[in-house]
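Lecture notes, structural biology module. Today: joint structure prediction for complexes of two components.
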Amino acid sequence: MTSACKMLEGAFAALRQEFQCTPSADARTVLVSTGRFYADGDAVEVLVRFSEDGTRAAVSDGGLTRVRRDMFTAGEMSRGAAALWRDVIADFGVTEIDDRIYVRGTAASVAQMIAQIADTSLTLDSVKLLIEQERVTFATKLERWLRQEANVEVADNKVVPNRYGEPQLVTAIVGGSNRLVAVQGAGGHSASAVRSSAEHAHWVFSGLGDDWPIQNRLVVLERVDSRRHETVTSLVSRLKEVAYVASFERQISLRRFLVESPPVDRDLVTVPFGQAFLES
Amino acid sequence: MTGGERNVWSGCGVNCPTWRYLWLLWVRFSPLDSVAAFAASQEGARMDLAIRSAIQDGIGNLEVAEPIKWHRRGQVVSANVALRNTLGCRLSLVIRVPVPCPFQAVILVRDHGTHPNNAVRLCVRGRHVNRRSDRRHWLPGTHLHIWTPEYGDSHAVDPRPPWPPDGWHEDADSATETEILALVRTFCQMLHIAFDPATMWVAPDLKPQPIVLPDGDEIP
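The predicted structure, tokenised, for the full assembly:
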């Protein structure tokens, strides 16, 4: 046992070398590398600031944990992720203020404080994995794409009256160049789920009256299985009876339909609208 | 994700030299509208791969489209500006400067596509270990993260020319606003991003702002 410990002496020396101090632009604050690394291989570094008399110290992440979260994830945290974030902060006994996490104490306890903030930062960093894996519904994904990438105007209202005088909820109502388009997404984990959603879209649009002519209706399929050509053609043919049909995988066609005059063919899935595609 | 992306190229990763060469030839000799059409027509992951390869290879007429606006989170000032491009996707240039240590800036191109990711990321004088790939480390040292299907953006390499900027000191422990501008210019040149500092550059506020608590303790 002793000899095994002796064999590790060099390793311990190497680990100790990973703790380093770098001066910062502010004379009383230093940057400390903690010997810890995030999953992506970037070092966990913390800021240490001593009081003027040198008796007290505060250690913080300087907001880097929060910035990493913004850098690697798209969008806001869900309630679950936000709760986990708060719980980690509470469990590690640190405080969050102005986007930075910190702990403070006497100068004698600075080693524990550095470890405490470094460990908290590492644990908080894993919250981004939860954010990435949360299931975002296709309706949310489609609406986000319309607002953020297609840059089209999306109305806050998602309800249109159908020809029976009932309110009908759709995924989004988009203001195009010269017309409003009611958009209904059809998505799901499996081909059968997409089909069920598409059947619902057919039901939604078949209930609309002349206020919403065909060129003002669009069904967006989340994905199309190109290996099942006949099934896709059949599905699109049925949907074409009540609306234009596009695929979320063909985003140029999709966007062009929203901002330009609609083409003659209502099938934007198998017939490209300003978009060439290479079949695999 | 990784397995699926590799399969669409018939078992060969996107970095496979043959496919990469064919892809570059195709891109170079095709009208740019076709590049956009090609990129956008591919299924999810394949589209992302094509776009990231184009960004990394400096294809796509990337251009800083608006003046840089800085905002502060804690002790970090960041900017996120749109990149106009012919790839048909939403890209942005992100600059991140930790105020206490402005000599450790991070500059990256973010792809906000179906699978948002950082296509290329330059970490100036940063500490990094390629834990999942070749175990190379920079402790500290300037390195360039290149997104790959296998490792995401956790794999880094040495920065490529025109790095480093003129008069570069790798071991400097300070950086002025002018030096940060030089970093941004060099990064843009590296990826053929059009950037006109005269109209687009605004200097960041690099004054450290510790928080003073009511009892006098200061949080860095």
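Point to remember: The longest strand of chain B covers residues 117-129.
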